[in-house]
Amino acid sequence: MSAVLLPAAFHTARLHARRMDETHLPFVAAMRRWSACMAAMGGTRDLATCRLYLLRNLAHWNEQGFGMYVLSESDGGAPIGRAGLKRSVARAGVEIAYAFLPDCWGKGYATEIAQALLALGFGRLPVDALAAVALDGNAASRRVLEKCGMRQVSTQGEGAARKHRYEIRRADWRDAIAA
User: Fold this and answer.
1) 3: DSSP letter
2) Rounded Cα–Cα distance for residues 150 and 145 (Å)
3) Euclidean distance between CA atoms 122 and 100, whole angstroms
4) Helix 47-64 vs helix 25-33: crossing angle, to nearest 10
């Protein structure tokens, strides 16, 4: 078990983030079955796949000391999304990930949580860069990453599976928040 590097919960101006745990399976499963939500993330998932996703995220927290959170609005209520930092074996590095229910799109929540995760990542993790991946068809997510100072560094795949990888280096992030 690794030392816990990120808090179990934190707040932004409008969001409350709580470390993902077993109690979040119903929300994770509902979110990953909703086609409007998952269209930008490769399609819907069945319950068994959702359970495996949750177990992998719980293991990630135990092994890495950081991971995914479930998000709700600060005034309480039901979960509206998930976000966090995760180590990517396939792409070697730590990535920001986020997803919101469609009712929450266009409200600036993705930018708000991405900025908070960059601050947490650079503030508490021994990394020189943070990355993110967005599908070609997810123009809104690509704009969020660019607003946060991330720059596209590579593209992989073809058609609907085409992915854009973004990155921001620690020094560039520091310069951006100082400006």
Assistant:
1) P
2) 5
3) 23
4) 130
Residue 12 CB contacts under 8 Å (≥ 6 apart), including other chains = 74, 112, 113, 115, 116
- Residues 10, 79, 65, 124: is their CA dihedral positive or negative? negative
Is the distance from CB of 20 to CB of 67 less than 8 angstroms?
yes
Residues 6+ apart with CB under 8 A from 74: 11, 12, 13, 14, 15, 16
> Which pair of tokens denotes residue 52?
């495996």
- Residue 164: count of CB within 10 angstroms of its CB: 19
Which comes out higher in pLDDT, residue 32 or 150?
150
Q: pLDDT tens across 43-86, in order?
A: 545 778 878 888 999 999 999 999 999 999 998 889 999 999 99
**Segments of the chain assigned E as strands:** 9-11, 15-19, 68-73, 79-88, 93-100, 129-135, 151-156, 163-169
Q: Helix, strand, coil shares of the chain as percentages rounded to 5?
A: 45, 30, 30
**CA-to-CA separations, 15 to 59, 141, 142, 157, 162, in angstroms, rounded:** 25, 18, 21, 34, 30
Q: Are 54 and 21 in contact (CB under 8 A)?
A: no
